[in-house]
UniProtKB/TrEMBL annotation:
Its main location: membrane. It comes from the Bacteria. It is found in: Membrane. The lineage of its organism: Bacteria, Bacillati, Actinomycetota, Actinomycetes, Mycobacteriales. InterPro entries: TspO/MBR-related_sf, TspO_MBR. Keywords: Membrane, Transmembrane, Transmembrane helix. This is TspO/MBR family protein. The chain crosses the membrane at residues 21-42, 54-75, 87-106, 142-160.
Length: 165
């Protein structure tokens, strides 16, 4: 595990700009595929624990802001350049999975593959949270992200089970 810098700094503007740009790009790419108003999505049988549609943009906006900020904290306070590079790679892989889920679910209509993608996103989010928190303890604020992704995995699995053809 990485050692934590004694004098933790706030993210430098360039680090925060880079993580914000990456997170915003993933959000835009994922949003381009997201279609909760589509006839296909509306006809799906949904579990009782499905949140109302308005909950998703609120939750994701908060999580994306947290992800950009805590990742920038980790980059700024990484114990060495190699650790910062590993955080960057983990963030990039996570954002690909994040955006990819919407394409697999809403565009390809592959509920089983979307469930597997959500599970991979959950594992990736937990790993990223571990790395971020190791670089800066304030990064523990990111714990809501893998928790939400785990919920999304359960929801995806329930949708898959209820809508097998």
């Amino acid at each position: 595990m990485a050692t934590i810098a004694k004098d933790r700094r706030w993210p430098a503007p360039d680090a925060l700009a880079r993580t914000t740009l990456g997170v915003a790009t993933a959000a835009v790419v994922g949003s381009a595929a997201t279609a909760p108003a589509s006839a296909w999505y509306r006809q799906l049988r949904k579990p009782r624990f499905q949140p109302p549609p308005a909950a998703f943009p609120v939750a994701w906006t908060l999580l994306y802001a947290d992800l950009a900020f805590t990742s920038a904290l980790a980059l700024e306070n990484a114990p060495d350049p190699g650790y910062a590079e590993r955080v960057q790679r983990a963030l990039a892989a996570n954002l690909v999975l994040n955006a990819g889920w919407s394409w697999v679910f809403f565009r390809a209509h592959r509920l089983g593959a979307a469930t597997l993608t959500a599970a991979a996103l959950t594992a990736s989010s937990a790993d990223l949270t571990r790395r971020v928190a190791a670089a800066d303890p304030r990064g523990r604020a990111l714990i809501a992200y893998p928790a939400w992704c785990a919920f999304a995995t359960v929801l995806s699995a329930a949708l898959w089970r209820r809508n097998r053809r």
